[in-house]
Amino acid sequence: MTPPGNAPQRKYDLLLKNGRVIDPSKPMDQVADVAILDGKIAAIEQDIDVKRSRRTINVAGLVVCPGLIDLHVHCNLYKNPESLDPTAAGVYTGVTRMVDPGDNGAYTFQAFRKAVIESTPTRIHSWLNAAGLGGFMYGLYNTDVCLHPTLIDVDAAVEIARLYPDFIAGIKTYCAPEGWGSPDGTEVYTRALAIADRARLPLYIHSGSPSPEGYQAYGGRPMLYGEEVTREQALTKMLEMLRPGDVVAHPFSTFAGTVWNSVEKRVSHGVREAYARGVRFDSGRGAHYSFAVVRNLMNAGVLPYTLSSDRHAEDNHDEFVRRASVGLCQHMSEFLAFGMSLSDVIMRATWNPAKVLRVQDRAGSLHLDKPAEIAILALRDGNWTLQDAPFFGKAPGTLKAKQLLTPVMTVVDHRVYPINPAFLPDLVEIQVQEDVWSWMKERPPHHTSYEPVK
Fold it and tell me: In this predicted structure, what is the pLDDT of residue 145?
């Protein structure tokens, strides 16, 4: 019998050794060890004995931070051909939680729950589309499917939201005045707000319209409260009605009717007031994102509360096929290049989105006894040229970066998920100037055109 004073200590399931632990919620930025037991964070200390752990991974030189939370990933793989697999685009890229941005409505959420949410280790949430069928499916993007008021079943949406509070984070609708329906243009927004109010959830608003024909659900003039409006006027009126905690997506869009007025080179009316009132702005990078707009808004003091990728497969819903599959780590790297600190960048991809989702008790930080959702990232020095998302045939903007964040592995509970290189940026394509990985020396030339290789 072992004397009580000499009782062996129970071993940890996993020990992450010697990493640079960054947790902006504390704040914390120091070299430390992180131990996991029974799927929870059991210890964060300077030097934990490796003999106390069943498995130890040396992460010296790497960043250990809360698992990344991406508020905008199209991941309904069984409904939308432009969606990505949530495991490959989730835990295999450092993202432990993601939110499907309105591809599902009250009539389709149950299938999404069974087919997607319950079949992946990535934690999935939903911005439930106000429209019962959801949006972004089979090319039916922002047409009558999601902008006709008769397809917004308030009672059904409220009931689904109440049934699944752990999954449904808010209600998705669109600031697209050409398709808001009803003679005075208010019915779509009125019904979406009614759902959010009754379900006690925030609204998640898609801002920006690409062209009159792109969102012309009714063929009439864009109306709001009985007045014909411009896209900026529609945005301003919507911002006035938003509540603290509501979220506006795509502030860095090149489209009309979003946060930056690209024609008059100024912040759109109503943005600063909403910003000060507690309306949050989510970057929603996607396929209509401009470095120039980012610079202008940051210079104006308008910063994103959260960073998200709006990641999906090739965007074929109109004649302009645009590249949109930029992962969250590369998007975070863009803001490093804009001068944001590493801690601030991580905060906008971990702690802030956890607050938006109201899951601070189980995600977004590294606190003792919380579920282990951890990302291990490499911060690589070098010289890269990043590109934004051109639209309507415009040449992409470029951004010089001296540092690049890339995921290395992800921990969920006590399971370790290696990174899937297929979902990392092609380091040749973004012009690596240094030999960051030795195996790159043996890589053949990278061809980006469809011309025969000579």
Answer: 65
